[in-house]
Design brief:
single chain, 3 strands, 88 residues
Length: 88
């Protein structure tokens, strides 16, 4: 739980999760374009989210990498949405 709270507070994490949730499956390049996060930070956040089991990473034959929410990630998004609805 502590690790998830820490990563949610890091730069770009919520933007990344928002775009993956909206698009269901999205490439690294598209995420970078839509979020405006620099390559190094984006790569770091995606690795952290993957290691926590919040997103999954799929490498295609042409080496394009796609990201999507795992079941754990979908539950996290639903929980965040409920919290935000309570306050806004």
């Amino acid at each position: 739980m502590q690790e998830i709270l820490e990563i949610l507070g890091k730069k770009g994490t919520l933007k990344i999760l928002e775009e993956i949730n909206k698009n269901k499956r999205i490439s690294f390049t598209s995420l970078q374009r839509l979020t405006g996060i620099n390559t190094r930070t984006l790569s770091r956040r995606l690795k952290e989210l993957t290691s926590l089991g919040i997103i999954s990473r799929e490498v295609m034959e042409d080496r394009t990498v796609f990201y999507s929410l795992t079941e754990k990630g979908k539950k996290l998004i639903k929980g965040l949405q409920r919290i935000l609805e309570e306050y806004y």
